[in-house]
Amino acid sequence: MSQHLEAEAPAYDGPPIEPDGPYGSKLSQVVANVPGPIRSVTSEAGGMTLLLGKVMWSAIRHPRGYWNDVLDEMHFTIKRSWLSISIALFGFLLALSVPSMQFVNLAGVGELYGPLLLVQSTRTFTVWVATLLVAGVIGAALTAELGSRKVREELDAMEVMGIDPIRTLVLPRMVSITLITTLLAIPAEIITVLSSQFGSWFIGGIPKSDFYGAFLWSTLSTVELVALMFNCFLAGLLIGAVCCYKGLAAQGGAMGLGKAVNQAVVIAFLALFIMQLGYNAVILGFFPGLGAFR
Q: How remote is the C-alpha of 212 from its chain's centroid?
């Protein structure tokens, strides 16, 4: 009889379900029955969300004592990465403006180049390129720094001494990278305008007065700029949560640390792409006439 029951029992390859274990509750058993790859992604996404919630709760509940660390981290990070981010952003947007200008010239609507490219770049490419550069340069360094502390067991030593590593290390860095990404929206938009204007003048021969005319600035509305700032703010929170989580979860020595950095950058890239799709859909849903020619 027991052999017959064992033969009919469904195969289970997940972690052991213990009464007091991570899958002990009835609700958590649903996660235990999810296939391995999906369960791993769900677990990591939940861990990043939980870390983000802890950091935000700590920052809002006790908004003092970490701003000096935030300013120091911002100064060090900007000094180390502003040149590479600026060059990469200008080069990518300039490379985008050249074929765009050629396309509108072939279509015979060269005067629409400024409104078309600048509005679309502000909504998508500017945020996309700027946040990718933040994730690839600043986020990778953040993951490596926290991961090296985890591998050297410095975080465990801090907990033994009664120091909260989330409050001491993670919170200032997450606030710093969020503020940097948000503030980067302003120079990124300026670089977008300059690169677009240069491409229009070099390829299409459009005068500066026509490019910076009232038609262009009436198309680029205030709502568009506010949406750009808030988009960068959300992207900074996402990058900080992903990179800090992967740094805290690093293990396996130098090889494991390298894998954690690579995984953090790849996950941040994919998450930013998905977030951009959802964010733009929501913004255009609330403001359907956004970016329309007036």
A: 31
